[in-house]
Amino acid sequence: MIPHDPGAFTQGLEIRCGYLWESTGIYGQSSFRRTNIGTGEVLDLLLLPDSFFAEGFTFLNDSTVCLLTWRENTAFLLNPWTMEIKDEFYLNTEGWGICYTGEHLIQSDGTAILRFRDPDDFSVFDSVSVTLNGQPQFFLNELEYADGQILANQWRTSRILFINPDNGNVERFINLNSVVPQSGGVLNGIAANADGALFCTGKNWPVTLIINYI
Ligand SMILES: [Ca+2]
Question: Helix %, strand %, coil % for the chain, to 5?
Fold first, then answer.
């Protein structure tokens, strides 16, 4: 495990270009951060205007990040190296989590539905309902795309679902209950690296856990 800023109300986590990137929520405190992947030290930070509550994010390429907001109907495009907002899309749902397959964006809104969006104009072209043994899985939150599967953290649980993007079936899940730190809030940050490690943190957690998920 590595240290994590306990003041960070984590909403999204992703590994890119050798750094661990994070978004945090709360009106007046919402941020996007570049952190040291080995120490958790915050190296750079963009603070959003007070009227926006940041949610999940994902990289579209090495120099473009798509960052959701919760109820502000806005998805920002920003440059993670200059921390400048470059553009924005209209978001017609609540924003919770988002990941990128390399071809399209997949977005959650707190329900059991995942929407597939075109990265060029953010339009929805498909969606799946996520089920486990036929039962809808609500509160899908922070997402990650790895090994052709969608990984989803289910809000208010320590479960990470492994979802088949073709049909929404949960193929398996892991539960981090036994390793979640005593202090802090819910699990809300999952980021996979290329070696099969999953970095997991949560709202105001003092640490980021590193687990093997394969
Ligand atoms: Ca993620």
Answer: 0, 55, 45
pLDDT at 213 exceeding the cut of 90: no
Burial of 51 (0-12, 13-18, 19+ CB in 10 A): exposed
Question: What pTM was computed for the model?
Answer: 0.96
CATH entry 1.10.630.10 includes domain 2-212: no
DSSP code at position 49: P
As residues whose CB is below 5 A from the ion ligand 1, the structure lists: 13-14, 144, 191
Place of tokens 């994590």: 4
Measured in whole angstroms, the distance separating CA 179 from the mean position of its chain's CA atoms is: 20
Distance 142 CA to ligand 1 centre (A): 6
73 forms beta bridges with none
